[in-house]
Design goal:
The chain is an alpha/beta fold. The chain folds into 3 domains: 20-97 and 130-209, P-loop containing nucleotide triphosphate hydrolases (Rossmann fold, 3-Layer(aba) Sandwich), CATH 3.40.50; 215-292, Helicase, Ruva Protein, domain 3 (Orthogonal Bundle), CATH 1.10.8; 299-368, Winged helix-like DNA-binding domain superfamily/Winged helix DNA-binding domain (Arc Repressor Mutant, subunit A). 49% of the residues lie in helices and 15% in strands. The strands form 4 sheets. The chain has a 5-stranded parallel β-sheet, sandwiched between helices. A 3-stranded antiparallel β-sheet has the order 10-12-11. Helix 4 packs across helix 5, helix 7 (215-227) packs across helix 8 (235-245) and helix 9 (249-265) runs antiparallel to helix 11 (280-296). The longest helix has 17 residues, at 249-265. The structure holds adenosine-5'-triphosphate and magnesium ion (MG). The site of adenosine-5'-triphosphate has 25 residues, from helix 2 and helix 9. Magnesium ion binds at residues 9-10, 51-52, 152. It comes from Corynebacterium felinum. Residues 17-170 form the Orc1-like AAA ATPase domain.
């Protein structure tokens, strides 16, 4: 039997946990019309919370309603790349690229008298994102559909290009075109986007913060993923798996996949508690190499010290900023820049005033280990 779990970034899970309400909201937004708030959405969340998966689902919902989906890629040249080939291809598919012929003056000899004309292709005014999006919008509107622009990994895009994209979208919305924009990224990318003076219109966007799944959602998805692939799972195995998963989408796939494999090794058609127990350390190791290490790679020394202090004074996953300052022999105000940077990178969150929480499960344990 094939393992039904998908412990890999960017891969849709077989059973999506806990996002049904949000997806219903997007379906309605595409159907509703101009002014539906979710038509301009920013999804943020720490690594592995399911941003890419949500974007995939949002794209599918748009396509189901006949919309054209344009994927923007967050590297230098994003705008040029959108104009050609992305929009150019979409236009070609809709067969609207035939350019009318016009008559233009082709030769004026300086100081001379000849003035002749010839048939040429229409003057191609410089193709901008705005003009090309308008052409596409005009073409799709004939089919009663719209355009969704999706952008993943916002933090990797250049802010000036994001501003240009935002301006074009805003301009089309003003002219009542059916256009939607969904972007996803780490919190720092979303904040950088919102801080730029050229993107003020995005400050009114729906900001969706993807976080933990509820225990109930984890359980339902865990059980359904296993049973729909032809195996059983015991109740205590589900409880233990849920405890290890801590509401974190990536771990749901990792724990499921490893427990399934442990059952396979024993030729068992039931996933049992012993299988889940046997893979707990392997799951944590996966977190270390695929989540903690990459998340901390670019974190400067001073912020790491902050995190280490936080791990030391934390009660469970949360710590008081006052205690962190005390541990570091400093004041809370001296820590504010580091605190802010870590919040923006999505490594920690601030659930309450004066309190901070690790947003990545097992990060505290990782920081307390000798790596
Ligand atoms: N709602 C969900 N239910 C079950 N599994 C999920 C859910 N969302 C995501 N996953 C799983 O979690 C893992 C991470 O998902 P995804 O790649 O979308 O995260 P991400 O937030 O985009 O991470 P990154 O910040 O690294 O880009 C994948 O294995 C995916 O299948
Ligand atoms: Mg992603």
């Amino acid at each position: 039997m094939k393992n039904p779990f998908r412990p890999s970034f960017g891969l849709n899970p077989n059973i999506l946990a806990g996002r049904a309400g949000l997806l219903r909201g997007f379906s309605l937004a595409f159907a509703e019309g101009i002014g539906a708030p979710l038509r301009v959405s920013l999804l943020s969340g720490p690594r592995g919370t399911g941003k890419t998966v949500m974007l995939h689902h949002i794209e599918s919902l748009a396509r189901e309603q006949g919309w054209i989906v344009l994927r923007a890629f967050p590297r230098a040249g994003m705008i040029d790349n959108l104009i050609d080939p992305t929009i150019a291809n979409a236009l070609a598919e809709l067969d609207t690229t035939s350019i009318p012929l016009t008559r233009r003056i082709s030769g004026v000899s300086v100081g001379g008298f000849s003035l002749n004309t010839e048939m040429v292709t229409a003057p191609q005014s410089r193709k901008t994102l705005n003009t090309q999006l308008r052409a596409l919008s005009h073409a799709v509107s004939k089919h009663g559909a719209g355009i969704l622009i999706s952008l993943d990994e916002v933090q990797s895009a250049q802010v000036e290009e994001l501003a240009e994209l935002a301006t074009a979208i805003q301009d089309l919305i003003r002219d009542e075109c059916d256009i939607a924009f969904a972007a996803a990224g780490l919190p720092e990318g979303i904040y950088a986007l919102l801080d730029h003076p050229g993107t003020t219109f995005l400050r009114r966007a729906e900001h969706i913060q993807l976080g933990k799944l509820s225990s109930e959602d984890v359980k339902t998805s865990f059980v359904e993923t296993i049973t729909s692939a032809g195996r059983e799972v015991t109740k205590d195995a589900v409880e233990e798996a849920t405890r290890i998963i801590r509401g974190y989408p990536y771990l749901l796939q990792v724990v499921g996949s490893l427990a399934w494999a442990a059952a396979s090794l024993e030729n068992s058609t039931t996933v049992e508690l012993s299988h889940v127990h046997s893979i707990a350390d392997d799951a944590q190791l996966r977190m270390k190499t695929h989540v903690h290490q990459p998340a901390l790679r670019k974190v400067p020394e001073s912020q790491r010290n902050f995190l280490h202090a936080m791990a030391e004074v934390a009660d469970g996953e949360t710590a008081r900023i006052k205690d962190i300052a005390q541990h570091l022999n400093t004041t809370t105000s001296a820590l504010s820049a580091r605190r802010r940077a870590l919040l923006e990178s999505g490594i920690i969150t601030a659930p309450k005033r004066g309190e901070l929480e690790f947003s990545l499960p097992y990060l505290k344990e990782y920081l307390q280990s000798d790596y």
